[in-house]
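Usage

Read records sequentially. Each one opens with the input sequence:
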Amino acid sequence: MMQPRNNEKRELKRKKGSEKTIEIIACVFLTILCFLVLLPCLSVVSQAVSPGTDVMGGKVFFLPTGFQLETIGYVLTRTPFLRSLKNSLIVTAAGTFISVVTTILTAYPLSRPDFKGRTIITFLYVFSMIFFGGTIPAYMVVKTLGLIDTYAGMILPFAIVQFNMFMMKNYFEGLPGEVLESARVDGAGDMRTVVTIVCPMAKPVIATVTLLYAVCYWNNYFHAMLYTTSTEMQTLQVYLKNLIANIQGTLADITGSTGYSPNLTSDGLTAAAVTISIIPITLLYPFIARYLVSGITIGSVKG
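and closes with the structure output:
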């Protein structure tokens, strides 16, 4: 009897040793990945605050060689950065709110088995997710409705994303039916059920969808460029593209003006604009990140 028990102990010890080795390898691998992600970001930030002579001389890598705020100050005060930032914040905040509300109000009825026409409507969403009419028809619709160069033109065409809707729908289908039935027995209508019962129970998937919509609106460049015609309505992404494309003209204006500083370089200005632009979405992410994995995992596959 002692020999089998000893074999079991050795086998258990061997398994624990293998698991420990795998954990160490995984930690080392993830640490390397983190460095690969962070190093380019550190390089951009370092170029934004390092002296212009070091930036132009190629001396800035991952750590600043000095510290100056003239480049960031120029971007904030002498370029339309703040106006573009305001436009992006408005589009992101309003668009995310409208999209989340629209997605909830669409996903909830489609998650109810007794909803008439559920199969047909779901099929239409799947069909529209696979087949897209094209950029030109979409532009013609927006132009016909008079939404060109407006906030509505950058929000309403993207009020709902099918993937987000199906993720939320699958999550709603996994909610306990007894709770919803008890609310109905107590006299709660559909809207009250959604607001007071469904939404509090679905915080993980709602937070996940909110983050996905916010990142989508914030990073949207193509449609913001397509549906805007004036510099007053350009978003931050369009501003960054125009800054990079016209950086030589910007430098010529700086060189010919009074108070020229050697810290104002093409790479420095671009790095400063990019560094400031990532701050808002970076501040938002920690508040929702803890819901991201659980929301996608639970909402993507019906339990």
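Summary fields computed downstream for this record:
- The CA atoms of residues 199 and 206 lie 8 Å apart.
- The chain has a mean pLDDT of 81.
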